[in-house]
Amino acid sequence: MSDERASAPGDDTAYSHKPSLMGAAWHFQLRPDALEWQTGRYQGRIPYAGIARVRLSFRPVTMQTRRFVTEIWPTSGAKLSIASTSWRSLVEQEAQDRAYGAFIRELNRRIAAADADASFETGVLPILYWPGLVVFAALAIGLAALALRALQIGQFTGAAFVAGFLGLLLWQSGNYFRRNRPGRYRPDAVPGELVPEG
Questions:
Q1: H or E segment at 105?
Q2: How many C-beta atoms lie closer than 10 Å to residue 90's C-beta?
Q3: What is the average pLDDT across 130-156?
Q4: Is-above-0.70 flag for pTM?
Q5: Class of the CATH domain delimited by 14-124
Q6: Distance in angstroms (rounded) separating the CA atoms of residues 48 and 51
């Protein structure tokens, strides 16, 4: 693999990110027939026709509430993960929406052009998603009932506190479940809610 690191502005065939503060950065390059990767002294190459599965998901973390991840499973070898954020310092993760989105859309185009027998999936595993959604809905209903009860007995401060917590829950967790519903997509129609335009 060449020593090229960061992609030039407008270059959708290269992408780099640092998934952890202490670890090495990951560098990805789209070659004519394969996805090449390098991290530290390790590197590899996956032919587009040898990609068996791609999953797009929304994975917020404490330091970055807008974070997207693409997971790639080759027919042989370990899974690769590509994130839309990169660690910059102890307290900062930088969003790289534009570069990430362009790279992932081009990767999907090349996989499709190679006639890979790949599965293109969205969201999280159904076995995790649906029970999580049930718990989220039950918690939201319980908090709404608690806020109403507090209003009925005149505890306005308590009602406001619970309503604020409910609003935060609906905004953060609701967004997570909305974007991560399990499903499939076509590589020529990559979903915008999981691959940002930038």
A1: helix 97-113
A2: 7
A3: 90
A4: yes
A5: mainly beta
A6: 6
